[in-house]
Design a protein that fits this description.
This protein is mostly helical. The protein contains 14 helices and no strands. The protein starts with a helix and ends in a 7-residue tail after the last helix.
C-alpha cells in the first residue's frame, strides 16, 4: 500500500502545467495516465493559477470560434488525431472530443501516439535531437492550422454538422494561401503546387469538375 501511494501520488500542479503546456496532453497522459484527462487538465489549471498565468475558475465550455472548431476538426484528420487538431487550431486540450461529439463525427485514431510520447519523454530528459524533432512536428501542425484557417472561410456557409468543406482549387484559394508553408499546403491540398504549373485551360476544366475538392485525398504529415 505504501509503495502504491508513492507511485500514484498526486503530482505537483505546476509540473503538470509545464508538461501539458510544453509537450501536450499526450505527454501528460503518458506520465500520469492513471489520473485521467479531466484530472490532468484540472491540475494544470491549478498550476497555471499558482504561477499567476490564469485566474482559477470554471472555464467556459466554448472559448473558441466556429473557425477554430473547423480547423481542429479537419486538422485532426489531416495530421494524427484530436490532440494534433487542438494544437493546430490553438484551442485547449480536450476540447476536440466535445467538438466531435457535437458535430456527429467519429474522431480519427492517433496512429503515432507511442512515437510522440517517446519524443516528448526524451525531450524532457534533455535529448536535443528529440526536442528538435518534436518541435518540427509541432511547427508542421501549426502550419497546417494556418492553411486551414485561410482556406475554410472561402466556403460560406460551412456545414453546421459533420466535416468541413474544403474550397475549390482556384485563384482565390491560391491567393489566400500565398506565403503559407509549402509542405503544409501539400498536406491539405495534395498536388496544388503541381497544379500551379498547369496551363490555364486545364485548370479551368479541373475547377469546373471540382474533382480535387470533392476527392478525399488527405494525407498525414
Amino acid at each position: 500500500m505504501m509503495v502504491e501511494a508513492l507511485v500514484y501520488r498526486r503530482p505537483d500542479p505546476a509540473l503538470v502545467a509545464r508538461i501539458l503546456d510544453g509537450y501536450g496532453l499526450d505527454a501528460a497522459l503518458e506520465r500520469w495516465g492513471w489520473l485521467g484527462r479531466k484530472t490532468i487538465q484540472t491540475l494544470a489549471q491549478e498550476g497555471r493559477a499558482t504561477a499567476g498565468a490564469v485566474v482559477v475558475g470554471i472555464p467556459s465550455r466554448r472559448t473558441y470560434s466556429e473557425l477554430d472548431e473547423l480547423v481542429c476538426l479537419e486538422a485532426a484528420f489531416l495530421l494524427d488525431g484530436p490532440s494534433a487538431g487542438e494544437r493546430a487550431a490553438g484551442i485547449r486540450d480536450g476540447a476536440a472530443h466535445e467538438l466531435f461529439r457535437r458535430r456527429g463525427v467519429e474522431p480519427p485514431r492517433c496512429q503515432r501516439q507511442g512515437r510522440l510520447s517517446a519524443l516528448a519523454r526524451l525531450a524532457r530528459a534533455g535529448n536535443t535531437p528529440a526536442a528538435l524533432e518534436l518541435e518540427r512536428i509541432r511547427s508542421h501542425e501549426r502550419a497546417v492550422g494556418d492553411v486551414l484557417r485561410r482556406a475554410l472561410p472561402l466556403v460560406d456557409p460551412q456545414p453546421v454538422r459533420g466535416r468541413a468543406r474544403l474550397p475549390r482549387r482556384d485563384d482565390r484559394l491560391r491567393a489566400a494561401l500565398d506565403g503559407c508553408d509549402r509542405v503544409a499546403i501539400e498536406t491539405v491540398f495534395p498536388g496544388l503546387a503541381v497544379e500551379e504549373r498547369l496551363p490555364g485551360w486545364l485548370l479551368d476544366i479541373l475547377a469546373a469538375w471540382d474533382v480535387p475538392a470533392t476527392a478525399d485525398r488527405r494525407i498525414a504529415a
